[in-house]
Amino acid sequence: MTPSYVEMKFSPSIELIDLVRRFIADFYHRLTADRVLRDRLAVATHELLENCVRYSTDGEARVRVEVSPEHRLVITVDNDAQPGHLDALRKIIEEMNGHEDGALAFYRVLMRRGAKDRDRSGLGLARIKAECDMAVSYSVTDSRVSVRALTPIEPRT
Amino acid sequence: MDIDLQVPASNELRATCRLDGANLLVTLEGHADLRTKAMLDGVLGRVHDVAVERKAPEVRLDLRAVEFMNSSCIKSLVSWIGDAQDAAPAGAYAITLMGSSAVHWQTRSLEALSGLADIVRIDVQ
To answer: Residues A130-136: what's their mean pLDDT?
Structure first.
């Protein structure tokens, strides 16, 4: 039987990101034989986990990976965040999804824009779209933010 | 001749640098993420200083043994490329980023970096 979801809660620690990513990478291995897709998913998972850990304000980070009956894989991270971060997140996703020249062009725009700012990356979500070929969206309920990355997937037979 | 990179050792990411004729060859190995970003910044800063001081025509950065690199560390590469551009013309050097086509992140990330500046060349095998 194809596993359909995995969900984890963990304390938002940088040291735990790699551990959680590797656990979820094992889950991807059970889902698909496509190595390139697994690598794409692993990169997207890591970037989402880092965002979640970096901006969590309530001492808890959550990640859920789910495959729908329509063969769509969705990675969702969920955390409490400061209003300033929510505004920044909204701006970057709206700008990214509305960029007319495509995901790679927008990724390079962000690279050039932030080249002199060594403290912040700001590239993670654009990377998911440009390098992992995944759609990125978000939703906010009160101070809780969910960020999702989505891609079609052909499960193992 | 080996160059002392003057950065603390890390279990996750290892870096070496040596002179290859007049050029510098820098090799990274391991896992580059938030845990190792400060170290990577230190390595690239030191490489930049050595390249300018020695007037190296080219720095080759071998990433083939880097299993994973997060966006913060990719940003470190972007900033380093910017530093190299700013050093022109007196301290100008070209950058070649070496990757493996068998490692997905390298294929895609190096493609993205290739369009950033004329001084950057990509060598993915």
So the answer is: 96
Distance CA B77, CA A15 (A): 23
Q: Is the ipTM of this complex over 0.85?
A: yes
Number of domains in chain A: 1
pLDDT one-digit tens code per residue, A73-94: 999 999 998 888 888 899 999 9
> Taking CB atoms and an 8 Å limit, are A17 and B34 in contact across chains?
yes
Q: What is the CA radius of gyration of chain B?
A: 13
Pairing of strands A72-80, A135-141: unpaired
Cross-chain CB nearest to B108 (options A42, A115, A131):
A131
Q: According to DSSP H, which parts of chain A are helical? A: 14-31, 35-55, 83-97, 103-113, 124-131
CATH number at residue A148: 3.30.565.10
pTM (global) more than 0.90: yes
Chain B closest-CA separation from residue A136 CA (Å): 16
Q: With respect to residue A143, please indicate whether it lies within any of the assigned structural domains.
A: yes
Position A157 in a domain = no
* SS3 assignment, position A122: coil
Sheet holding A135-141, edge to edge: A5-10, A61-67, A72-80, A144-152, A135-141
Residues of chain B with pLDDT under 70: none
The fold adopted by the segment(s) B13-124 is Transcription Regulator spoIIAA (3.30.750)
Q: Which of residues 12-41 of B touch A (CB under 8 A)?
A: 31, 33-35, 41
Q: Do B71 and A118 touch (CB under 8 A)?
A: no
Contact residues, chain B, for A37 at CB < 8 Å: none
